[in-house]
Amino acid sequence: MIKDITIGQFFPGQSFIHKLDPRAKIVLLIVYIVTLFLCKSFFSLALMLAFAITAVLLSRVSPKMIWKSMKAIVILLVFTAVLQIVYNDKGDVLWKPFENSSFAVTTGGVYAAVFLIVRICALILLTSLLTYTTSATLLTDAIEKLLSPLKLLRIPVHSLAMMMTIALRFIPTLLREIDIIMSAQKARGAMLDSGGLGQRLKALTSVFVPLLVSSFRRAAELATAMECRCYTDGANRTRMRRMRFTWRDLVAALTLAAFAAAVIFTSFYPIAQTLIFQPVIT
Predict the structure, then answer these.
(1) Beta strand 105-106 with 93-95: parallel, antiparallel or unpaired?
(2) 116 part of a folded domain
(3) For 219-233, b where at least 16 C-beta lie within 10 A, e where not — what string?
(4) Which domain covers residue 217, as residue numbers?
(5) What is the distance between the alpha carbons of residues 237 and 230, in angstroms, rounded to a whole number?
């Protein structure tokens, strides 16, 4: 399961999504997330899912990598679906284990479970593209540019952007480190996959302690490497690649704006909801 987590990885390419300005990607992603949580019907949710799938196709990222990112949240999806089915009692009863039982599977619970699963999948699908199609350097520069107004408040924007990007890019490294440590401990006889919950948690201490030590060692090595290269924090640093908004960013913005307008119309106007014939999630 750890090997399947691909968050934080970058896959070079020359696709339409790769060539978008990184600042535009971040802003459009924020707008997409907000619009996604405004969806109240399956039709509006299908629009946002279609937008995410189109973006994935335009990015030309391997479907295998996309599938790996989705496999990592299977447990979360199952847990969310079970909670919605158990605690949502709206709608008609579909199944009841006992005649006098207070628990019953209803249409409202099933609708809510499917709705939230699709919403989470759409969210992970498009969020993953940000790191898949944007290098660490461009991501740092974009975050710094977007947060540049905070410099008026004497907030170290460059340091914040650098820390955020380093933390994101170290996720794949730490995941590989966890896999190596677990394999090494199993080779030494550690019972990480057997026993009760308490025994497994106790056995995991043999993984987390070396991981903590390794994390501090990597952080010290990174700091030393930056000092050896005379790195200074945001002292009028030059950039090899300048960020510019192009026609691609305008097309992406207008497309998302159209989808967002459609979502708002279908979610908040009763006339649109009656025409769509879709159950509304409230």
Answers:
(1) antiparallel
(2) yes
(3) eeeeeeeeeeeeeee
(4) 171-232
(5) 12
Shared-domain flag, residues 72 and 107: yes
For residue 145, how many other CB atoms are within 10 A of its CB?
A: 15
Element (H, E) at 244: none
Structural contact between residues 44 and 266, judged by C-beta atoms closer than 8 angstroms: yes
Per the structure, the count of domains in the chain is 2
How many CB atoms are closer than 10 A to CB 108?
19
- DSSP per-residue codes, 217-281: HHHHHHHHHHHHTT--SSSS---SS-----HHHHHHHHHHHHHHHHHHHHHH-HHHHHHHT-PBP
Residues 202 and 249 in one domain: no
| pLDDT tens for the 282 residues of the chain, in order | 455 555 667 788 888 998 999 999 999 999 999 999 888 888 888 889 999 999 989 988 887 777 777 777 788 888 888 888 777 777 666 667 666 666 677 777 788 888 888 898 888 888 888 888 888 778 878 888 888 888 788 878 877 877 877 777 777 778 788 888 888 877 877 776 666 666 777 777 778 888 888 888 888 888 898 888 877 765 566 666 677 888 999 999 999 999 999 888 887 765 555 544 444 444
Kindly report whether the global pTM for this prediction surpasses the value 0.70: yes
Residue 153 lies in a domain: no
User: Which residues are 93's β-sheet partners?
Assistant: 106
| 162 is a domain residue | no
Nearest to 17 by CA among 110, 125, 151, 149: 125
Look at residue 202 and tell me if it is in a domain. yes
Q: Are residues 25 and 131 in the same domain?
A: yes
Distance CA 89, CA 97 (A): 14
Tokens of 11: 């896959």
Q: Which amino acid is at 144?
A: E
